[in-house]
Amino acid sequence: APALQPAHPGLWETGIGEGFRPGTQSLSLMAGGLYGLPIFGTQQRHDLALLSLSYGRMLGPVHGEGHWWHGNWEFRGELFSGAQVSPEVQPLVGLTPHIRYNFATGTRFIPYIDVGAGVTAVGIGPPDLSNTFEFNLQGGGGVHYFLRDNLALSFDLHFLHISCAGLSHPNLGLNGLMGYLGLTWFF
Asked: How many angstroms separate the CA atoms of 58 and 185, rounded?
């Protein structure tokens, strides 16, 4: 009798932590906050409480075989929402495409680096922001710890900048360190 092959051969190229197969997808739900930094001209410290939902897809096979940096490129879309909690409570919501590089370590710990740029709607105004419509820039990294071959506990630390890119004034911006903790499901 012919052997039946599984419908999905798995997420990993050769084994857990060895790099993702092309087309592997991810769905993340994260919670965290931003510690505001009054830098680069910002006059106030803006602290935020945030929730993030993101979807990602591996763009191809493992790159850099035999090198310390071998891994996968991933394209992600993130929807985040929450509120400024200090100096006053104000809502915000943003949508950001990201490019991420997941390092293949051969272990359950998969570190990554990540950059993104998108749009944000905020209730925060002067002296640092001017409009409801703002842009956001993000850069940082994190680590997935795989609890199972398709489920990871994820920790993320990014620098976030929000401003209107000079479309109106004031344009001092909101800056801070953003940390998230959550779960990522790979399929």
From this structure: 13
